[in-house]
Structure formats: C-alpha cells, structure tokens
Amino acid sequence: MAALRARGAGAVAITNNYSPVWYPPDWPVSDADAAAAAAYHALHNRLFTDPLFGRGYPELGMDPSVVRDGDLDTIAAPLDALGVNYYNPTGIRAPSTADSPLPFEFAPLEGYPTTAFGWPVVPDGLRELLVSLKEEYGEALPPIHVTESGCAYDGIDDPERVAYLDGHIAAVRAAMASGVDVRGYFVWSLLDNFEWAEGYTKRFGLVHVDYETQVRTPKTSYAWYRDLIRASR
C-alpha cells in the first residue's frame, strides 16, 4: 500500500474471498455448533478483514511474534475500496469426532439448486454478506465492489447462469437498499478458462471457448448480461 501510494496510485484496494457461515437447514444448533461457526468465520473471513480496519488479528492461537511492531498500523492504512468475491455460504457444524484436527466440520447445505461444481446457489447469501460487512465495520468500511460472482455450468444455452446472475444482482440491489455502498458487480468470468485445481473441466464463462479450436461462442447469459447493462445506462 505504501509503495503504491508513494508512486502515485490514486486508488488502491484489496479483494478477499468471503463466505457467510450457515448451519444446515433444520439443524438443531448447539453451543458447540455455534463455537465451530465462530471459529470458521474467524479463519475464513475475519482473519483477512479485521486487520485492514484496525482491529488486529482475531484470536486464533497464532504466535504473536509473527506480528512485529508497526505491522498492524501498516496493514490498516486506509483503502479506497474493498473487493468482495462471493460464490456461496459454507455449512459448518461442530466436529463429529474428538480427535478432529479442526475446530469445525463442513456440512452440506441441502435444499438449494447446485452448480456444476456442486456449490449451492444462494443469492441471499450475498445480500447477507454485504449487509454484515457494513454492520461489522461501519464507517471504516470503504465502498465495495463485488469483484467475483459466478457459476459453473456446461453448454452454450445456459438459463441456469442467467437465473444465477439475475438473483445475485437482485441481492446486490437489496443490500444497496439497506445502505451498503456497492459501486460495481463483476461476473466471473467473461471466458471459459483455467479454473485453478479444476483446470479446464469447469466452465464459468459468459463466452464458451472450444479449447481444441479456440473458437469463442457467446452463451445465452452473454446476451442477457449485455442487454441488462444496456438497459441500466
């Protein structure tokens, strides 16, 4: 941050990948489940956000010697924006075995449609996330950009992706109506591409890519998103 500012950067931001912590539907939540959810929230969300806004690191049993004098002040330098990546909530419950190496256990969130990745499609999770960031960090929170939001589906005619984007954009609008300062929404991704450990097996693009011929074919979702943008001008 300091180096970018010193070299004239006019706007500097950071992007984090967030996931609201949910219990499985109809799960009889115990104190142990609540503790597990708090632990996962601290590890996945707060660990990367609290220090940005002057709160230091959450209590995770980390060695305090790794944080040197002045580190937290440097980390908490003011941001011009916060990037939010969102794909789905994470179901969490208490470990089912006493010898679990983690203080939580993943639990499937059933009852929702799923993408080709098997991820639950929960647009309201994005609204909840944006509102919770505003509630948690208040005036310290800079304007937000949803820097990644998308889904993996096969095929060029992709009504599932259209429904996904429609629901998630509506969730952003609902968060804005609740007072969250959201400045932009970016779809992942324009093109089908290399998706981390999944390689070329999962397609997130608005444009289909034939990996053998490199032919690009706009999908149904591409035309839908183009028309949405035009209508919003």
Automatic annotation (TrEMBL):
Keywords: Glycosidase, Hydrolase. The keyword Hydrolase applies. The keyword Hydrolase applies. InterPro entries: GH (IPR017853), Glyco_hydro_1 (IPR001360). Transmembrane segments: none annotated. One of its GO terms (biological process) is carbohydrate catabolic process. GO terms for cellular component: cytosol. It comes from the Bacteria. GO terms for molecular function: beta-glucosidase activity. Pfam families: Glyco_hydro_1. Belongs to the glycosyl hydrolase 1 family. PANTHER family: GLYCOSYL HYDROLASE, LP05116P. This is Beta-glucosidase.
